Description:
By secondary structure, the chain is an alpha+beta fold. The chain has helices at about 25-40, 135-150, 180-200, 215-220, 230-235; strands at about 5, 10-15, 45-60, 60-70, 90-95, 100-105, 115, 120, 160-165, 170-175, 205-210.
Amino acid sequence: MGIDLFDVERLLLTEAAEPPLPPHDTEARDRVWDLAVRANPTLFDGPVVACGGLERTGSSILRLSWVRVTYRHYALRRVPGATALPSLFVNVVQPTDDGRVLAARMSPSTAAPGRWQLPGGSVEPPQDGAVLDESALAGQAARELAEELGIDATAEDLKLGVVTRGENGSIGLTYLAPALPEATLRTCFAVAAEAERVQGREPELDDIALVRSRDELAGLAGPHADYLEPVVHRFTSAR
């Protein structure tokens, strides 16, 4: 299965219920999760949003249903015969003022050590009566940009550029940030990483690279997120 890219001008969001699990799948999921936590104690079973379905309802309108789960849900991917809902995440294309795009490498302690990807993270469910809408999603993307790269941006600064469907069905909402000079990006990243170390935490990202082509991206050693190449190509070839 390849990577699907959807241009979108409007995103319609509806909440759906988590499908019930047979008891044997629940037990197997929990066993897999417990083993994963023993191997990596930094894993936590926090609330997260999965994708319940994605369909096009117009030339540039997508309808997305979302489901409240926890990270434990994705242990179902390692249970033979079980079906896990696709993950739902936001990420950000951060360009430089000379047309390159920032790629970031995950730290060794993360769930995807050494993987090159865009800054971003899993979508979190709304709390305290809030709603999950386009503005809330852009706000989550802006928060990821601030936490991982130290770049201050508001939801209004970010534009939903493309929606991706990955090889395992995962859905990515990719936002485009305003361009910044390379020196600013590197300084912000260094300051954000040092702030994490001062708090006794390993930064989620341990390196960044600025690329302007598929060939430059291919030169980054290590695994790459499945969406990275087509998204980088989309946003660098358009310049």
